[in-house]
Design a protein that fits this description.
The protein has 88 residues and is an alpha+beta fold. It contains 2 helices and 4 strands. β1 and β2 form a beta hairpin. The protein is globular, with a radius of gyration of 15 Å. The protein starts with 16 loop residues before the first strand and ends with a helix. The relative contact order is 0.21.
Length: 88
Amino acid sequence: MTETFPQYRESPLRLPEYFFLDMYCKHFRIRVPWIAIQAVVEIVESPQGKREHAISWNYIPGPMITREISTGAAEHILSLAREEGWIE
């Protein structure tokens, strides 16, 4: 007996989201797969210390969302992106 598992391929309904992080005069473009977008947004929206780095997303289909995040949150997102291979 074989079981069919859902394939997590990108489809028109499940496109990745691009996050743009400005940190230490460097700009990072992070391509987050649809399955992890909510997790990254929750990191951005979480309670943090001094917010000093800009991150933006949601260019298409609507207006851009820009938030300020702390250094710790920015480093956490960058380490996650490096680990998963999301940085372009």
